Amino acid sequence: MTIRCVMCGRSAAGKSSLLYALRHGTARHFVSDTTIGVAHLRYRNMDVWDTAGQEQYRALLGLYFRNAHATMVVFDITDQVSFEETSYWAAEVRKYSPDTRLLLVGAKADLARQRVISEDMCTERAAALGAQYWETSAWTGAGVSEPFRFLLQDLAPSPTSSLETVSLESDISETYYGGTCCGGGGLLRFGG
Question: Could you say which of 54, 66, 113, 132 has the lowest number of CB atoms within 10 Å?
Answer without folding.
Answer: 113
